[in-house]
Amino acid sequence: MEYGGGGDDAPDGTRWIVLVVRVPAEPSRHRVAVWRELRKTGALSLGQGVWAVPDVPLFADGIGRVLELTERAGGEAVSLAATGRGSQDGRRLRAMFTAARSADWAEFIADCGKFEAELAKEIRIAKFTLAELEEEEQSLERLRRWHRDLTARDVFGAPEAAEAGERLKVCAAACEDYAERVFTALHQVPEQRMPEEGRREPGEESGR
């Protein structure tokens, strides 16, 4: 794949796959399944039933699943290889695609904030249990998988990607800190009080 320059009347070298998808309105589950797969793939919506992705191997499996779901639903899909008529068209498509990735990154960064806030709350209320630690570690792993997926789809490099990477590191460090607190709390030996001999309640007289 080439990202070329050139004048406004020349293609910029970026190749795209454009999908024109039509799925029957009923039952709605088929239409929803196709839409979700397109969103999961990272396809850019260009209008009603028209989607586009950069023509790179990363998107091949997702496009294949969209075509399969569309056929299974009794719909129709046309897959076209395309380039902009001029570099200006290519730049617009790239800007639109990158804007969609920026929105994805913003959502990811917001979820990192929620994760950090959740850990801070557990520390504040001293909820140091293995069950809670396992839940937080699962949430961190979900963030890591999400980050990998977004990085793969971010073909042109959205500006928010760098901040997202740093926020993920902060989340990982916060989770490690919480894990250490959990293990410290679980390994702490409870204080034992020795029984007091001859202890009497106030006002109680000793017998003779």
UniProtKB/TrEMBL annotation:
Keywords: Coiled coil. Residues 189-208 are annotated as: Disordered. It holds the Pfam family ChrB_N. Residues 31-188 form the ChrB N-terminal domain. Residues 193-208 have a biased composition (Basic and acidic residues). InterPro entries: ChrB_N (IPR046858). Residues 116-153 form a coiled coil. This is Chromate resistance protein ChrB. It comes from Streptomyces chartreusis.
